[in-house]
Amino acid sequence: MARGQVVGLALAVIDDGQVTKVSAYGKRNFERDLPLQPDTVMYGASLTKTAFAYMLLQLASEGRLDLDAPLTKLLPKPLPEYRLGERRDFSDLAGDARWRQLTPRILLTHAGGFANFRWLEPDEKLHFHFTPGERYAYSAEGMYILQLIVEQGLGLDAGREMQVRVFDRLGMPNTSMQWRPDFGANLADGYTLEGKMVPHDQRSAVTAAGSMDTTIADQARMWAAIVRGDGLSPQLRAEMVRPQLAILGAGQFPTLVSRPGAPVPHLAAGLGVVTFRDRSGIGWFKGGHNDSTGNMAICLEAGRRCVVMLSNDVRAERLFPEIARLALGANDMPWRWEYGWYVDPP
To answer: Which residues pair with 43 in a beta bridge?
Structure first.
């Protein structure tokens, strides 16, 4: 951390599905000299997507959600008729019937055909870039549709379902899909590549794509439960980490532009995670990132082993490969595909 000028880093290790280590290092706020602790609230970023996928798979395990049903069967009215404000206005798709082909499985494998965010489009509108299910292209927009299915199709409160089915069920007292005032007493602020402090964003709206606030102690419990398959049928637990759709791009970002280089052999989309062929067998992972946050969870099916890393400093991402080797031993995590900058060690 000193070498990388990393302000704060929290770490959990899971072995045989049980939490064996939870630690926090550095500061939650450098300027005020406040320590980062295992119960410090940090931004979960896109780890939220896997948490939400885990909740959806619980519903599927209970027979309440068909992963292969089209939206025409899951929503009470056509998708383009929903105009529910920012992130939930799908009227842009009114002239393109391909929305009818979308299913939860397609959306969970990031094969919906959308840009990561609509505001990245030149006209800031939602567009299909390919036929749903055709290929992988990471997209928060697909998560918004999955949340719509829960709320409008199943008539459930997405935030409450996450709270009851995941956070309360697993004993995660300091995790929520929206800001809680009590978080302010022990909260991590973020740091950019330039070392600039960014105050923690108080996200008041529940969003499946990335509104989760959490702690490393809570995340340790969640990933241990996921790797064990708690609350899931054996079939749905296997489906989560089964290679569902081959990933043929050399890098994850930009999502709709091919990065130069060869694809990673045996890299594929699972349900809410990305799977890879590790020397030990199946491996899978999920990252979370913004300008002042770097998170990563990596699990190996052999031995049900995981390492979970949360950082309030995006510079920590350059330490993750070394930390993962220390925690898991030699592994085949596709760092270059995930981050782009990674160079294999000699």
So the answer is: 213
Q: Rounded to whole angstroms, how far apart are CA atoms 264 and 90? A: 34
Whether 12 is covered by a domain: the verdict is yes
The string of pLDDT tens digits covering residues 204-261 is 999 999 999 999 999 999 999 999 999 999 999 999 999 999 999 999 999 998 888 8
Domain tally, the chain: 1
Domain holding 274, by residue range, is 8-44+187-339
**13 within a domain of the structure (yes/no):** yes
User: Is 330 contained in some domain?
Assistant: yes
Please report whether residue 206 resides in a domain: yes
Counting other chains too, the contacts that 185-189 makes at CB distance below 8 Å and 24 or more residues apart are: 186/28, 186/37, 186/39, 186/40, 186/41, 187/28, 187/40, 187/41, 188/8, 188/28, 188/29, 188/36, 188/40, 188/41, 188/42, 188/43, 188/312, 189/28, 189/29, 189/292, 189/312
Domain CATH number, residue 263: 3.40.710.10
What is the reported pLDDT for 258? 82
pTM for this entry: 0.97
- Max intra-chain CA distance, the chain: 56
First to last CA, the chain: 21
- Output phi, psi for 322, to 5 deg: -65, -40
